[in-house]
Every structure is written in C-alpha cells, then in structure tokens.
Write a structure and sequence with these properties.
Length: 443
C-alpha cells in the first residue's frame, strides 16, 4: 500500500495526501475553480446590469475611458440572453467541478464545507461587491474572453438564448417617462461625493419646466382679455397718448378695429420713438409706427405647438381664441385673451421675468413689480444732468442742442430718420426732458 494515499475498503483511493505531488495539483485546481466562479458571478452581475441605452449614452457623452469600455461591451449586450446563458453555464460548470477536486485532497464532509464557504465568500459576495461598482471596466477587460466562451458553449447557449428571446422578448434598455426623468434630474441636484457635476437649482427648473410643457396648453398661461391693455386702430398719437402708452411698460400692444374682442394687429412700441408727436396722426395711419398682423391660436393648443407658431410667424405675441370658435367673422376671431413668448419662457424656466419697464410681475393677479431701476433712477436724480441732456438748461438755437446731442453718448437721445408733414426724410433726434419727450429736427 502506498503511504501517500488513503485506501477505502474496496481498495479505491479517495484522498490524496500532501506527500503526493498530485495533492498540489488538485489544490491549485480548486483555488482556480473558486476564482473562476467568482469571475463568472461578477461578470454576470456587472455586465447584465448594463443596458444598451446606457451604453449608447456613455459612448456618446461619457469620459474617454468610459467610451472605450462601452464600445467593447456594447457588441456583447446586443444579445443579452446569449451572454446570460454563457456566463451562467460556465459558472455552473465551475461550481459543479469544485467538489470533485476538493474531494481528492480533503474528506467529503470537509469538501462540502470548503466548497460552500469558498463559493459564498470568494465566488459570490466579494466578486459581486467589486463588479457592482466597477462592472463596466471589468466587463470591458474580459470582453474578448467572454466572446471566446460564447463560441465554445454555442451549441448549448445559443438555443437557450433564442428560447429566452422568444418567450421574454428583447429590450434596448429602460426608457424613462417624463415624470421619472424630472425626478431623475432633481436627484442630480444633490451635492454628494459620487455626483461629480451636481445640477444647480436653475438648471433643474429649466429642465423640469421643459419636460412639463408637453402636458400644458395655452389656457394655462394666457392673459385674459379683461386684463389686457389694447389700443384701437384710430388711437391718436399725440404727446400725451404716446407717454400713456410708454407708461404701461409693454413692448408690444394688441390692436382692434371697433370691437375690443376682435384683435387683429399689434403695435411694436419702440417704433413710437420715431413718431412726430405734433402730427397727431391715428395709429393705423402713422407710417413710422410698426404694426404687424396678430397670430391667433386656440386655447387648447400645446405649448410646444405655440412655440412653433411664434417661430413660424416670427412674432412674440398672439391672440387666444376659444377652441370652439372656428368660424371667424370678417377673418377675425373673437379673442378671449393674449399670450406672449415671455409667458412661454416663464413657464419653461419656472420663474417670472421682470425687466426695467414692467409694471407687474403677474398681470393676471395684478402683482406689481418692485422696479429697482426706477428706484435707482430716483436715488441718482441729482446726477441725471451729467448723463442726459436737459433742454431747459440749454441756451441758444436748435443747432446748439443738436451739437450737444451729437457729442453726447446719452441713452435718452435717439437718432432716427423720419418724414414730417410730407417733407423729405431728414435726421432728427428725440430727447427726454423731465419725463416728457421732445422732438428736435435738424432742418
């Protein structure tokens, strides 16, 4: 009897003793099988946790090393069931082979304990813990080896994979709904060590606001007609009326012919700067006043469709009609309110936009704006003469005034070209004197 082996009653050798060189061969084989089991287990978790959609995102906008890793894994992920069957099949073969090698170097009871403990710790827990955090890099490193295993196990793995494709179907990845995406964006505003580029609150508002626009209609943002400042086409453009228009703080004002509900055009207010106030012409007859056709949209129109209308019509203002009002009298619908591009942008960014001329933060609820620009102007009224032309302090003829205007970089002096009383066009200047506008011409 050989002293290096333990012989059972039937004369068959069961356990190889350390004195036999085969002992270390079985020992190394057992260690290799445990490590292989851990590798296949980790790859199963690390690679199957990826999806085609996420890999496409990484290939397009990930970091350089993420792009490289994603390109290596992506071909394998195009047939996920084949990959799954290959990894599980290899892992099962390794797990079943381990007790056979351990049984040759330790008793049967010890082989069971060692195999279960080794597979649990080194074949499941540790590999999956590592691959759950670094699955992309590990999967990319072993991608060529996995491709070889797919070919080796093809007769078994391919039929099983095809059956799973037929029964369970295939998927390109999990697409998020708008609400889920908005929540996903909000979670990225949290500053944590894992979040390399946290979003700021304004970014979250803009993104979530843009996602919510598809569910909202014009009815949610338009200004009712009774809260809208409108002008008749016969409005006389004298000095008092021009000042009244400017005091409203609007850049565009809708217009009507006879019925205030029949909005047909709108006035671009800044064009009034070139209007001669002493002419006292009707608004519709004034050539210097820029008047544009007013687009009309139904109240149930989606906000993205509204944006398309603004872009197509090259307008910032539109009249809103009732969706049931489909028959227009004389080509003009009955308006129930107006909507502006600013209303659309405010809904998108989730905040009110207030400029230096706005009188209200919210016209519908009549919330007045605290105008910091006007308060600053009152605070610096003592220094106004150094910035603006004060006509009452100028002695001399119009030529002196014009010389001062031409030599002054004043925000209140506007050089324009107008036609006065049918005469030929000539250079003219509009200046502001103590809140009232005065027209000075270079005749």
């Amino acid at each position: 009897m050989n002293n290096s082996t333990l012989v059972n009653c039937s004369g068959v050798s069961d356990v190889v003793l350390p004195s036999d060189p085969m002992f270390y061969g079985f020992l190394f084989a057992s260690i290799a099988l445990i490590l292989a089991s851990g590798l296949f287990s980790g790859l199963t978790l690390g690679m199957m946790s990826q999806d085609e959609l996420g890999l496409r995102v990484l290939m397009e906008s990930g970091k350089e090393h993420e792009k490289r890793h994603a390109r290596k894994i992506y071909p394998l992920m195009q047939n996920k069931h084949l990959l799954l069957v290959t990894l599980v099949l290899c892992n099962s073969a390794v797990a079943l082979s381990l007790p056979l090698t351990l049984d040759r170097i330790v008793p049967a009871w010890a082989a069971i304990i060692v195999s279960v403990t080794g597979i649990l710790i080194f074949g499941e827990v540790l590999p999956q813990a590592i691959c759950s955090r670094h699955g992309l890099a590990i999967g990319a490193f072993f991608a060529p080896a996995v491709r070889v295993l797919q070919y080796l196990t093809w007769p078994i793995s391919y039929p099983f994979g095809r059956v799973l494709d037929r029964v369970l179907g295939t998927s390109d990845g999990e697409y998020l709904r708008r609400d889920e995406m908005a929540t996903y964006v909000g979670l990225h505003a949290v500053e944590r060590e894992e979040n390399e580029e946290p979003l700021i609150n304004n970014e979250v508002k803009v993104i979530t606001g843009a996602l919510s626009l598809s569910r909202k209609t014009v009815r949610t943002i338009f200004t009712p007609l009774d809260k809208t400042f409108c002008l008749p086409r016969t409005y006389i453009l004298n000095q008092a009326n021009i000042d009244a228009i400017e005091s409203q703080g609007f850049s565009r004002i809708p217009m009507y012919d006879t019925d205030p509900a029949k909005l047909c055009e709108y006035l671009i207010v800044k064009s009034l700067a070139s209007v001669h106030p002493t002419a006292s012409l009707p608004l519709a007859a004034c050539a210097s006043a820029r008047i544009r056709k007013l687009p009309v949209v139904p109240a149930d129109l989606g906000l993205y469709d509204l944006l398309a209308v603004f872009q197509q019509e090259r307008a910032h203002l539109a009249a809103v009609r009732d969706p049931e009002d489909t028959a227009a009298e004389d080509g003009v619908h009955t308006a129930i309110g107006v909507v502006t591009l600013e209303d659309l942008v405010e809904e998108m960014i989730g905040a009110e936009i207030v400029d230096e001329t706005d009188r209200f933060v919210d016209v519908v609820r009549s919330i007045r704006a605290v105008n910091q620009f006007r308060r600053a102007a009152k605070h610096e009224a003592g220094a106004a003469a150094t910035r603006f032309i004060r006509l009452d302090s100028v002695e001399g003829a119009e030529e002196v005034i014009l010389d001062k205007l031409k030599s002054t970089d004043s925000g209140r002096a506007l050089r324009t070209s107008v036609n006065v009383d049918g005469e030929e066009e000539h250079d003219s200047y509009v200046v502001e004197q103590q809140g009232a506008r005065r027209f000075v011409s270079n005749v």
